[in-house]
Write a structure and sequence with these properties.
Layout: H1 2-15, H2 21-51, H3 60-76, H4 78-87, H5 93-127, H6 138-156, E1 166-168, E2 175-177, H7 186-227, H8 233-267, H9 278-288, H10 290-301, H11 303-321, E3 328-329, E4 339-340, E5 359-366, E6 369-376, H12 378-400
Helix pairs in contact: 2-3, 2-4, 2-10, 2-11, 3-5, 3-10, 5-6, 5-7, 5-8, 7-8, 8-9, 8-10, 10-11
Length: 401
């Protein structure tokens, strides 16, 4: 019994927050901001990609995959950390900790592999566009996305079978891989080292080398064209796209680099208190901010996204305001057409068959059916009626003559 009670106390202390209540509140509000910005930004990216799905290239599917990763991670997992921050303790115990750690690790690996694939594909398209064009088709990109999700899910599930473990973070309000498991067993040490070398360090090196090579290639090509006096709009577009993917890739690496360094240092310290809890929470929050950058980068560098966003906002505005052109039904039998659109021009007394004016909705009964149409503003109706009466008087005078 004493041993059981000590284990329970150790477990409860692991899931309790090591921060002050004010710091917990700030952490919770910070994650709320990340979630809101990420959901709005990545949601707009997904909606725009759905609207232009028939015109998308194969490489853009990786951008969609990255937006899906950021969107779902913020929706499915970060609310647990938000609620726990406001309650000053991790809620749900070990079950929710495993769920949170497993899900965040899967989506983190998916994000890392997706950006690595984007960097490599951009490198192949820029430097070896003809030799590797077959591998860049949409079908192969879809297959690559499936492989990314499969590898991430398989590797993240190893702790469920004894290779590693998901435990609370040192500050108590989040869960991740037990990096200190390096000291517990050979299997845990193997999993931790492979996670850092094969799934963190190697992808980061691929990203850095690929993006630097792309920038060097594009800059050299641009300088050669400028030296020859050739002005080409295509090279400006290529530089813009290269800068967009450069910002996406390095933004992800820079956001996760502090957390990776702190976790790597945590491996070689058996004592969990070699660093203050704030030293862990700040890199963790900075890593979560990586979900925010990409939508703003898309909308800044990609003119197609800018145009689609304007169209989407205009369409939403018109739906909300109900902006329509009004029509007026004429019940006179002498009119050649049953529907007239009235146009008013300042200083013009010429009679026209069609006119446009600001209108307001009104119920007009025609026969036994009732339809909601748009009758013209009161001043326009009076002017139209005066013109009509004048024309009828003119017709009567012509008949009498």
């Amino acid at each position: 019994m004493p041993l059981k009670s000590s284990d329970e106390n150790r477990t409860s202390s692991a899931f309790s927050s090591k921060l002050s209540p004010e710091a917990d509140l700030c952490v919770g509000l910070g994650i709320v901001s990340v979630v809101l910005l990420s959901v709005v930004g990545n949601g707009l990216v997904l909606v725009i990609c759905y609207r232009k799905r028939k015109k998308m290239s194969g490489s853009e599917l990786l951008c969609i995959n990255l937006a899906v990763v950021d969107f779902l991670c913020c929706v499915c997992f970060y609310p647990f950390s938000i609620v726990s921050s406001f309650h000053h303790v991790w809620l749900g115990g070990n079950i929710t900790c495993i769920y949170y750690g497993l899900g965040c690790y899967i989506f983190g690996l998916c994000g890392m592999f997706t950006i690595t694939a984007i960097s490599i594909i951009r490198y192949l398209k820029t430097c070896y566009s003809l030799a590797h064009s077959f591998w860049l088709k949409a079908t192969n990109i879809r297959l690559l996305c499936c492989v990314i999700w499969l590898v991430s899910a398989v590797w993240s599930s190893f702790p469920l079978f004894g290779w590693g473990e998901y435990v609370p973070e040192p500050y108590g309000l989040s869960c991740t891989v037990a990096w200190r498991g390096y000291h517990t067993s050979t299997k845990d040490a193997f999993y931790v080292i492979c996670s850092f070398v094969c799934f963190t360090l190697v992808p980061a090196l691929f990203i850095v080398v690929s993006q630097c090579s792309i920038l060097y290639k594009v800059s050299r090509f641009s300088c050669e064209l400028s030296a020859k006096g050739i002005r080409n709009n295509l090279r400006h577009a290529e530089k813009r796209i290269s800068m967009m993917f450069f910002c996406i890739s390095f933004g992800f690496v820079i956001a996760w680099a502090p957390y990776a360094v702190v976790s790597f240092l945590f491996i070689f310290h058996k004592e969990p208190r070699y660093m203050a809890p704030e030293g862990f929470v700040l890199p963790a929050l900075f890593a979560k901010s990586s979900h925010i950058y990409n939508p703003f980068i898309y909308f800044y560098f990609n003119k197609t996204f800018q145009q689609e966003l304007r169209r989407l906002l205009l369409a939403s505005y018109h739906k909300l305001t109900g902006n329509r052109v009004g029509v007026h039904i004429s019940t006179s039998q002498q009119a050649p057409h049953p529907i007239h659109i009235q146009l008013q021009e300042r200083g013009c007394a010429q009679r026209t068959n069609f006119a446009v004016s600001h209108c307001r909705p009104n119920e007009i009964h025609r026969g036994s059916h009732s339809r909601q149409l748009f009758a013209c503003w009161e001043s326009a109706a009076k002017d139209a009626q005066a013109i009509k009466d004048k024309e009828q008087n003119t017709d009567c005078q012509a008949v009498s003559m």
